[in-house]
Amino acid sequence: MTEVSQHISTRTKQHFRMQMLALIGICMTPCLMSYAQAQVFADYPQTRGRIEQLKQEDFPSWLSLDMQIRLRTEDQTSYQYIPGNSRVYELTRVYGGLTLQPASYLTGYVQFIDTHALGLPVKHVAANMRDVFDLRQGYLEYHHDNIRLYAGRRELKYGDERVVGISDFTNNSRTWDGFFGHFGDKTGKNKVDVFSTSVVTVHPTSLDKHGAGLTFHGVYGTIGSWIPNSILQPFVLVRALPRVKSQQGIYGSEIETTFGAEMDGRLPGSFEYDVLGDLQRGSYSNDSIHAGAGIVKVAHVFTSLPWKLRLGGEYDYATGNPHQNPNRISTYDQQYPSNHNAFGLFDLFGFQNIRERRVNLDLAPTENLSLLFQGEALGVSSRFDSVYDGVAGVVVQAPAHGFATNNIGDGFDASAKYVFHNYWVLNAGVGHFFPGSLMAANSHGAPLTYSYFSITYRFKLGK
C-alpha cells in the first residue's frame, strides 16, 4: 500500500507540474497573435496592471478602501537542495487598506496583511511565506506643497530596489517603522528623502514588530534635471546595531555606513544603461568594515523590429571576505534589497560574495504582454567566504582552506506578464539552475527547476 500511495503521489505531482507548464504556455500564447508595440518591459520590480476604481456615491469623501489579492502556485523539484524532494504549494496574499483624510494637509493610512503557504509542512515554510492577519502599514502623513512628513510603518523603495526595496515578489513584503521626510522642488524632478527607521520583523503567529530602537537611517536623493535623459540617485545609508559579535568572539556595537549612487538613463542609438556602485565602511565590534558592490546594465532597443525587442547585458559584483586580515570584514552587507530575479528566477542567492554575468532578452508582443528570457553565470567573489541566500543566510560554509573553485552554477529563465481586462495581472515563469562544481562538491549538487503561475487583482473603493 505504501508503494502504491507513493506512486499515486508521484503521478499527481507530475500531472500538476504539467498543468502548471501548460498554464505558462497559455500565458505566453498571445505573443504569437500580435505585433503591436508595448510601452513597458518585464524587468522586475515593475508593477503591471491598473487598480480598478470602484465608486460608491454614499461613501464619505474623506474615506477610501483598497484591496489586493494575489494567488501564486509554485513548484520546486529539489526543495532545499534535496534531490527528488519535489514541492508544489500555493502562496496566498491579501492586503486590505483604509485611507482617512480628515484635512487637506493630513492623511492616515492603515493596511493589514494575511499570507499563507498552503501545501507545505510548517517546518518547511520560510519566514517570508506566512503572516497571519497583521499590520503591514500604518502611518500619518502631513503634506504641504512639495513637503511630505510621515510617522509610523510604511514602505521604502528606491531606484531598481537593489539596495533598498520591499521585495514584493515574496509573500511577506518588507516595511519599516520610524520617521520619514520627503522634500522636492517645483519641477518634481529633484527631491531628497530622509528617514530614521527599523525594519519590521515578521512573526507568523504574533504581532510583527521591529527590534529595540531605530537602526536603519538614510538620505536618498533624486536628481532628474541636471543630466539630459538621465536620473542620478546618490545615497548615504547608516546601519547601527547595539550588539554584534566580532570574528574574535568579542561583543560590541555596529556602525556601518554605505555611500554610493545609482544612475540610469538613455543614450544615443536606442541604448539604455543603469549603473550602481557603493562602498561600505565602519566598525563591527572590534572589526573594521571594508566592502563594496557594483552593478552595470546596458541594453539596446531594436526600434525597427517588431515586438520592441530589447537585448541587454548585466554584470553584478559584491565583495566577499578573503580572511587575509583577521580584524577586517569584507563581506558586502546587502541590507534590504528586492532580490527576486536578481540572480536567477529561482531566487537561491543573495547580493553577498557573488559575481554574475547575465544576458537578458525582453519582448513586448502586445500592449498587455511582456516576455523576459535570461541566462546567467554565477560565482563567488572570494573562495574563502561562504555562499549566501536571498536573506543573507549561509547556504554553503566555506572550508578553512577555501573552496576549490568559485563556480556556483548557471541558470536559464523564462517569464511572462499579461494584463487581462486592465486589472487582472497574470504572471508565469520557469527557471532552471545547473549547479556548478562548488555546489556539487559541497552536498548542494541537485539541479533545481522552479516554476510558478500567479494571479493578482487590485481595486480601490471610494466616492
UniProtKB/TrEMBL annotation:
Q: Which Pfam families match?
A: Alginate_exp
- Signal sequence interval, chain numbering: 1-38
State the species of origin. Answer: Alloacidobacterium dinghuense
The protein in question is named Alginate export family protein
What InterPro entries is this protein classified in?
A: Alginate_export_dom, Alginate_Permeability_Chnl
Q: Where is the Alginate export domain?
A: 71-440
Assigned keywords, A-Z: Signal
